[in-house]
Amino acid sequence: GGGGGGGGGGSPGRVLRDVVMGVRDHILEHDPLFLTRHETGDVEVRACDERLAALWAGSAAALDEFPDQPPAVRRAVAVGRLALDPLAVLCSLCSGANGGAGEIASLSLTDVQGSLARGALLAAARRTVETAVAQVGVDLDAAASSPGSWRAPALEFVPGLGPRKAAALLRAVAGAGGRLASRADLGGGGMGGAGGRGAAAA
C-alpha cells in the first residue's frame, strides 16, 4: 500500500514494506515447508502506488466486474493486477469502450494539469498508453482468455485497431476457440489491412 517504498528510511511505504517482510520471514522461519506445501514459489514483497488502484476501484470497469463488492475489495484486486500487468490496468482507465469513462484523466499528477481541459488530459494519456502498447505489445491469448477479460482493453491501443476493431478481434478469437494458432490467423475475421498488421506486430 501507500505511495511506494522510496524516500527516507522512515517513510510510511518503507516502514510498511519492512513490516510485511518481517511477517514473511517469521512464517518461513517457523514453517520452512510453507512454500512447498502451498506451491507458491518465493514470496515477494512489492511496494506500489495505490493511487491507480484507488482510481480503478471506482471505475466503470471495476463496478461492472464487481458490482456487489466493497471498494476495499476492488482496490485489492487492482493492486494484484498492477503487480501482474500494470499496462493493462492503465489501458482500462484510459478506455472509452464498454462504458469506460477515461478515469485516468482524474489522476492528479502535477499542480498545473488543472489548466487543461479533461478532454486534453485524456487525449494525452491515450497517446502515451498507445506508445507504451506499441513498445511492449499485448498478449492476445491473455486478453481473449475469457469474456470481459481485464486485459482486453489494452487491445484498443494497438496501432491500427481502436475500440471497434479490438472488439471484432476478440470475437474472431472467441470464434476460433479462444486461441489463434499463429499471427497469420489475424488476417481473417475482418482484421485485414493496417489493423491486422498492427495486431500481428503486437
Biggest sheet architecture: none
Q: Tell how many strands the DSSP assignment holds.
A: 0
- Give start-end ranges of low-pLDDT stretches: 1-9, 189-197
**Strand content bin:** under 5%
Helix fraction? 40-55%
Q: Class by helix and strand content?
A: mainly alpha
Shape: globular
Produce the secondary structure layout.
Blueprint: H1 12-30, H2 34-38, H3 50-57, H4 60-65, H5 71-84, H6 86-94, H7 118-136, H8 140-143, H9 163-175, H10 193-201
Quick structural gist:
The chain is mostly helical. The protein has helices at about 10-30, 35-40, 50-55, 60-65, 70-85, 85-95, 120-135, 140-145, 165-175, 195-200.
Description:
The structure is a single chain. The protein has 202 residues and is mainly alpha-helical. It has 10 helices and no strands. Helix 5 (71-84) crosses helix 6. It is globular. It starts with 11 loop residues before the first helix and ends with a helix. The model is unreliable at 1-9 and 189-197 (pLDDT under 50).
